[in-house]
Backbone:
């Protein structure tokens, strides 16, 4: 997709005037050498229609379109009319009521152009035309970039006491004193961008968390930590994690790191006794082994004495395990009455990979301020989740 003149040169009414000046000058100087204009194809019509709708939605991202934003879009339409031969389609192009992000997504799937930078510059030209960058406009740019990169959309929320701020098609403002009942608010911050916890997208009650948590050192590896500790509490002797499941059949000589952990529990914590991020933050290895001493833990016996199913309590207190059928099945296998001595299971890493992409896009779109060290740490962890799945092996007896 060629970068439109309106996006390449600048923004505002001055640009539109400059464009008209140069195009008129070209017409006068080239009046004796008439150049035949290209004819619009159907694919090009779909592309131009998408761009105009995208630009219009960007202009309305904060609720209202300004004169400067309107001028940018009209200038773009004029540039296309000047570029191509006359057609009913071009004559029909105009600024209409904005469509929502779901419609933009459907139209994008038809276009699916790889020239994301051109589209980004169009959005930035529109939202920057009035020299303002509101939270709603940043949110719109972020969610469009998720769409361009093929990452699932993430609704954005913000808690604020400012009554003048109104929800838009890209950002939902919430009153801290009147929070919706279908959302959990456990670690939210006023005037900060919030997203649904990736593990809760399929659950009825969704937890909202600050998007800055995506950069937390342990957030990406909490699923590993919860799985490891569930197996540990159930009495596992060894848990092996293959970051690339294709290596799950590797021989023992392929194990790049072996970490022995004593399973004596001194507190009632279930999910934090073994923290996988401590390992991933210091190594790029694709295979990690945890070995435990002893059998079923004291916390397991306490839970069993109080509850018919200890695994239910572990799942209830988990962030990741309880909301994913595969992870739930894995945990229940560890606590099964007829559990085998050894089993393994592949688990998708799609959620973690989407978190990495989303976090990088959030930083680029200035939803949050991120240090260079935090970005490097995220890139390092990204290498661990390059594969589409992980393989977990659990042994309750050592050979």
Residues:
């Amino acid at each position: 997709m060629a970068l439109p003149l309106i996006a390449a040169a600048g923004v505002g009414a001055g640009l539109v005037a400059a464009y008209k000046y140069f195009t008129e000058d070209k017409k006068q100087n080239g009046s004796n050498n008439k150049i035949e204009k290209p004819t619009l194809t159907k694919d090009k019509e779909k592309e131009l229609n998408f761009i105009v709708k995208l630009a219009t939605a960007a202009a309305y991202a904060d609720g209202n379109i300004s004169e400067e934003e309107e001028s940018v879009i009209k200038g773009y339409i004029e540039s296309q009319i000047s570029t191509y031969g006359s057609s009913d389609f071009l004559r029909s192009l105009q600024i209409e009521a904005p469509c929502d992000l779901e419609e933009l997504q459907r139209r994008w799937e038809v276009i699916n152009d790889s020239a994301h930078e051109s589209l980004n510059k169009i959005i930035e030209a529109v939202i920057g035309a009035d020299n303002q960058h509101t939270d709603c406009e940043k949110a719109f740019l972020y969610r469009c970039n998720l769409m361009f990169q093929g990452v699932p959309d993430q609704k954005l929320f913000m808690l604020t006491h400012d009554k003048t701020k109104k929800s838009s098609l890209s950002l939902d403002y919430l009153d801290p004193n009147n929070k919706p009942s279908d959302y959990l608010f456990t670690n939210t911050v006023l005037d900060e961008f919030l997203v649904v916890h990736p593990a809760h997208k399929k659950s009825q009650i969704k937890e909202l968390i600050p998007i800055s948590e995506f950069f937390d050192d342990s957030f990406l590896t909490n699923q590993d930590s919860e799985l490891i500790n569930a197996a540990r509490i159930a009495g596992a002797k060894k848990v092996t994690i293959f970051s690339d499941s294709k290596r799950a059949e590797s021989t023992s000589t392929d194990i790049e790191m072996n970490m022995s952990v004593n399973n004596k529990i001194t507190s009632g914590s279930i999910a934090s006794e073994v923290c996988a991020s401590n390992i991933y933050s210091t190594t790029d290895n694709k295979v990690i082994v945890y070995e435990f001493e002893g059998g079923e833990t004291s916390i397991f016996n306490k839970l069993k004495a109080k509850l018919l199913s200890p695994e239910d309590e572990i799942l209830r207190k988990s962030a990741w395990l309880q909301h994913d059928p595969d992870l739930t099945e894995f945990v229940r296998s560890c606590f099964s009455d007829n559990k085998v001595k050894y089993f393994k299971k592949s688990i998708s890493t799609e959620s973690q990979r989407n978190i990495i992409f989303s976090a990088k896009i959030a930083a680029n779109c200035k939803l949050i301020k991120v240090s260079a060290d935090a970005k490097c740490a995220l890139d390092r962890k990204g290498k661990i989740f390059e594969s589409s799945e992980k393989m977990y092996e659990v042994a309750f007896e050592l050979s």
Remarks:
- Residues 1-30, 247-272 have pLDDT under 50 and may be disordered.
